[in-house]
Amino acid sequence: MLHLRLIVPPGRTEAVVGLIGSTVGTTHLAVLPGAALDPRGDLVMCDVAREAGDQLLHGLRELRIDRDGSIAVENIDLSLSERADAAEEEAPGEPADAVIWEQLAEATHEESTLTITYAAFMIVATMIAACGVVLDNAILIVGAMAVGPEFGPLAGVCTGVVQRRPRLAWRSLTALLIGFGAAIAATTVFSLVMDALGLFEASMLEDPRPNTAFIWNPDPLSLVVAVLAGVVGMLSLTSAKSGALVGVAISVTTVPAGANAAVALSYGDFAQMWGSMEQLLLNLGGIMVAGTLTLYGWKLLWSTQRGRWRRPAPPASRS
User: Fold this and answer.
1) Residue 219 has pLDDT above 80, yes or no
2) What is the reported pTM?
């Protein structure tokens, strides 16, 4: 269930209450006239089944409540109410399958903004991966994949394309490119320092590395894994099952490929560097294409359900 807290201009309260009342899966409606001071208006609260949340939010935005008032949405972790149970039964579909597009856009906006923290995570993750590829240590590779924050911008690109929000898509793509560029540059310097300290050697890069050789040898299976990761990543976001993101991070070679490219560049091994860059671009492209198509599929699926989100109007009384 979702809890909505609305600040509504007084002249539109009746329309908002009517919209809530006509939307299936809503309950616990409360109206406090004149309770809001900034902006001034009526305070309207209700609970709505997650399956019907996106449709209700769409209707509220058509009433311009987001412009002239306020719309706040919270997840309800526990609701002990028979009315809430009945509302969830009334709403078609399952909560885990519901997509709240505004919530998705907000989440990807936060995760795809180029910040110092994001850049620091990218750089440190790539440095950890550099140690992993040089030592042929799968544990370090997995750790770097889990630490890397690159899935946020990838999801932002997909969401921006599907929602036709070019600013979100462009900001996410910028964060992705600058993040990887900064991480590869910093890791190249890191590799040179480690070499100067005697901790890295060129022979370590050239020796057989059975655990990490796939990182600079892209093949059709790399694309298959990237596509599957993109699908799972989008499903995890739209269904609010964020735990699956860890699995996505482990499944693809993005940060490790950037790390191997940086180490190879520091030693002038351009064959490995270009192979790593191909692997990196293959995975990034596969995730973005698969994620975008997955979101388009969800959008098409839920658009066919629009007529089911309204309660039938009561029959007209006969005089």
Assistant:
1) yes
2) 0.81
